[in-house]
Amino acid sequence: QVQLVESGGGLVQDGGSLRLSCLASRRTFSGRPMGWFRQAPGKEREFIAGINWDSTVEDYADSVKGRFTIARDNAENRVYLQMNSLKPEDTAVYYCNTNPPQRDIWGRGTQVSVSS
After folding, report:
1. Considering just the CA atoms, what is the radius of gyration of the chain in Å?
2. What are the pLDDT tens digits along the chain (116 aa)?
3. CB-CB contact of 3 with 105 (8 Å)
4. What's the Cα-to-Cα distance from 20 to each of 7, 42, 81, 112, rounded to whole Å?
5. What's the pLDDT score for residue 65?
6. Over the range 50-84, which residues count as b (16 or more CB within 10 Å of their CB) and which as e?
7. How far apart are CA 48 and CA 32, in angstroms?
8. Which of 28, 29, 66, 78 has the smallest C-beta neighbourhood within 10 Å, fewest atoms?
9. SS3 state of residue 52
10. At 55, phi and psi to the nearest 5?
11. Which long-range contacts (C-beta less than 8 Å, at least 24 apart) are formed by 91-94?
């Protein structure tokens, strides 16, 4: 059973915006903190944003703070990532998962490419 499906990536210019969406299974999503992670070519996967179950606490990596916003819709089992002021260094495959992540449920991710 597919538990995490990311979408919304694409190619944008420096300074552009994208909104990523992640559909999770209820089993994965319900009651759990969720997060967004990314992996750039040749680099380790890294945490970039997290949100608790009732959306009262958000956490961001310094590299995206002030530019990215995480949100969730508990009725729809979805978590979102609004990305503004994108930079070429944001180019990566973006993944959602619980936070902290569960090793065996990573999805395919969605590619974000930012051109200079």
Report:
1. 13
2. 779 999 999 999 999 999 999 999 999 999 999 999 999 999 999 999 999 999 999 999 999 999 999 999 999 999 999 999 999 999 999 999 999 999 999 999 999 999 99
3. yes
4. 6, 22, 5, 9
5. 98
6. bbeeeeeeeebeeebeeebbbebeeeebbbbbebe
7. 17
8. 66
9. coil
10. 65, 25
11. 91/40, 91/41, 92/38, 92/39, 92/40, 92/41, 92/43, 93/9, 93/38, 93/39, 94/6, 94/9, 94/20, 94/36, 94/37, 94/38, 94/48
Q: Which amino acid is at 53?
A: W
Take residue 45 and report the two structure tokens written for it.
């996967």
